Amino acid sequence: MMRSLAAFRPFPAFFSLLSAVFAAILISGCSSLNDKQDETSGWSAGKLYSEAKDAQADGTYDKAARYLETLESRYPYGRFAQQAQLELGYVYWKANEPGSALAACDRFIKLHPNHPAVDYAYYLKGLINFNEDMGLVGYISSQDPTERDPVAARESFDALKELITRFPNSKYAPDATLRLKYLINAMASQEVNVAYYYFKRGAYIAAANRAQYAIKTYPETPAVEEAMFILLSAYDKLGMNSLRDDADRVMRMNFPNSRFYKDGLDRKTAWWKLW
Predict the structure, then answer these.
(1) Average pLDDT for 85-92
(2) Distance separating alpha carbons of residues 102 and 155, to the nearest angstrom
(3) Confidence band (pLDDT; 50, 70, 90) for 2?
(4) For FRET with 225, which of 64, 83, 118, 151 sits at 20 to 30 Å CA-CA?
(5) Mean predicted confidence (pLDDT) in 169-197
């Protein structure tokens, strides 16, 4: 026989207990919110900026970023806001957030293309990508160069070149020039390393194409010597004797005492490392 529905009526005491639990949770939540009040409430733009600078000096870049973000959101106009936008790029970078740092640089350049300090934004953008690229440039790395992404090197190059072109008298121009030379040599060497990779694996057409690209794109770099030898060697393997002889003639004209004629393409260390 079915039981009466009245038998399943919930107990009033249970609901009383449940209500008390919810009330305790709500009170606890309100207490926690009160305990976590924003310390910057009521701070002026100058105060926020000053505290952000102090945090930078202490090396607490996460805190500095929060202060600068708060400054920009509360006081979006005026010199402090512009300075906060500019310094956020550096602070994010030091806080190991290169993506946010680059976005901050790009945003500042877009919003303030004629700002007196826009040269710094270009320099910082180049610097961030330069350091991000040390794995690619870094023959130091044990990673196969064909697996490395050259985007960071190219973006660093573009930002630094823009700086030098638009602001040749900038105080950042001398360092940017040195970094550009380093990047050009590094990108050339990376292309030659890839050509070498293809050659050692019997992909002679790919090796010749990559070596030719390195020669045409980076003609003034030290890596051209090896690129020329890879090119003539690839033509030799392919049986393209006329092209081989042409490449050999150019090689001997420009590098008459090249070590590659004596040592060949064998490298004593792992081929993508220089030390």
Answers:
(1) 96
(2) 11
(3) very low
(4) 151
(5) 94
The CA distances from residue 149 to 103, 158, 182, 185, 206, in Å, are 19, 16, 17, 16, 18
Mean pLDDT, residues 148-154 taken together: 76
How far apart CA 26 and CA 140 sit, in angstroms, is 56
d(Cα 54, Cα 51) in Å, to the nearest integer?
5
Please state, rounded to an integer, the average pLDDT across all residues of the chain: 84
**DSSP character for 6?**
G
Q: SS3 of 232, please?
A: helix
Please indicate, yes or no, whether the overall pTM of this predicted structure exceeds 0.85: no
For residues 165 and 216, give the distance between their C-alpha atoms in angstroms, rounded to a whole number.
23
Q: Which are the contacts of 70, defined by CB distance < 8 A and separation ≥ 6?
A: 40, 43, 48
The CA distance from 157 to 234, in Å, is 30
Instruction: Give DSSP secondary structure letters for 39-96.
Output: TTTT--HHHHHHHHHHHHHHT-HHHHHHHHHHHHHH--SSHHHHHHHHHHHHHHHHTT
Start-end of H helices in the chain: 12-35, 45-58, 61-74, 79-94, 98-111, 118-132, 134-137, 151-166, 173-200, 204-217, 224-238, 241-254, 260-263
